[in-house]
C-alpha cells in the first residue's frame, strides 16, 4: 500500500507555493519580464511592443496591469511611448538596463523553472507517443491551423498564442483527459516565466512544430516523442534561465 505524503510535503509536481514570483505584484512581474528581455537582448532598442491587449494576453495579466507597468518602465527609461497613428510603445533607443529590482525573483526561481521544464518534457513526450496512435484528421487539421497562425504571426505575442494552442491540441490528441489537468498546471506555471522572443527565433521553433506534426501524421510514435522531447528540452537553454547564465558568464569573462 502506498504511503501517504506528510502534511505540507510538496506534490509530485512542482509546488507553486514557494515560487519567488508569487511574492511579486502583477505589475512588477510585467516590468521584470520586459526589462529582463531587454537585458538579455531578446528585445532590441527601438523595437515596437505589441498593443496592450496582445501583450496582456501573452503575459497572462490584465490590460490595466500592462498599462501601469509600461508607464513605470517609461519613467525608468526602458521604453518610450510615441503618440499618433504610427505611434505605440517602443523599447528605448538606449534603454536603461538592470533597473527593475524584481528581476531578482526570476533569477531566484531558476531551479524551479528547470524542474518545470523537465516535468513538461515527461508529459509532452508521453502525449506525443499516444497522439501518434490516436490523433485523427481533425486533430491534425487543428495542428496545421496553429502552424499557419504562427507562420503569419507579426509579434511574439501572436506567436505565443498559436504556440499554446498547438501544444494543447497535441496533448488533447493523446486521448488521456485525466492527465490534461496536470499538464495545464505545469504549462500554466511555466508560462508565468515566458519572456518576449525575437520572431526569427520563434519561426525556427515553428519549423520544429512542422516536423512533429509530420511524425504524428506518419504514425511514427518514436520520432514524434523524440522530436517533442528535444523541442521542449531546448527551453533549458533558450528560456531566460539558460540565457541569463550565458550572459553572466560573458560578463565575468
Automatic annotation (TrEMBL):
Key words of the record: DNA-binding, Transcription, Transcription regulation
Lineage: Bacteria, Bacillati, Actinomycetota, Actinomycetes, Kitasatosporales
Tree of life domain: Bacteria
Record-linked PROSITE patterns: HTH_GNTR
HTH gntR-type domain ranges (all copies): 24-94
Any Pfam family hit: GntR
InterPro entries: GntR_C, TF_FadR/GntR_C, Tscrpt_reg_HTH_GntR, WH-like_DNA-bd_sf, WH_DNA-bd_sf
Protein name: Transcriptional regulator
Amino acid at each position: 500500500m502506498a504511503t501517504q505524503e506528510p502534511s505540507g510535503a510538496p506534490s509530485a509536481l512542482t509546488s507553486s507555493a514557494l515560487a519567488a514570483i508569487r511574492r511579486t505584484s502583477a505589475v512588477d512581474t510585467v516590468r521584470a519580464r520586459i526589462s529582463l528581455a531587454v537585458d538579455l537582448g531578446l528585445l532590441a532598442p527601438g523595437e515596437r511592443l505589441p498593443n496592450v491587449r496582445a501583450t496582456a494576453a501573452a503575459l497572462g495579466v490584465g490590460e490595466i496591469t500592462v498599462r501601469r507597468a509600461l508607464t513605470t518602465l517609461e519613467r525608468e527609461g526602458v521604453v518610450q511611448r510615441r503618440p499618433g497613428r504610427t505611434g505605440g510603445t517602443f523599447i528605448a533607443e538606449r534603454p536603461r538596463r538592470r533597473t527593475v529590482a524584481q528581476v531578482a525573483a526570476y533569477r531566484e526561481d531558476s531551479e524551479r523553472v528547470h524542474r518545470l521544464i523537465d516535468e513538461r518534457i515527461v508529459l509532452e513526450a508521453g502525449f506525443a507517443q499516444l497522439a501518434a496512435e490516436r490523433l485523427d484528421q481533425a486533430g491534425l487539421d487543428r495542428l496545421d491551423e496553429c502552424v499557419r497562425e504562427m507562420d503569419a504571426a507579426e509579434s511574439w505575442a501572436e506567436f505565443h498564442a498559436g504556440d499554446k494552442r498547438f501544444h494543447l491540441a497535441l496533448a488533447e490528441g493523446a486521448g488521456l483527459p485525466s492527465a490534461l489537468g496536470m499538464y495545464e498546471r505545469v504549462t500554466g506555471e511555466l508560462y508565468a516565466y515566458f519572456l518576449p522572443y525575437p520572431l526569427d527565433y520563434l519561426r525556427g521553433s515553428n519549423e520544429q512544430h512542422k516536423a512533429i506534426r509530420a511524425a504524428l501524421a506518419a504514425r511514427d510514435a518514436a520520432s514524434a516523442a523524440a522530436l517533442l522531447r528535444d523541442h521542449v528540452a531546448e527551453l533549458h537553454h533558450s528560456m531566460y534561465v539558460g540565457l541569463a547564465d550565458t550572459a553572466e558568464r560573458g560578463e565575468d569573462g
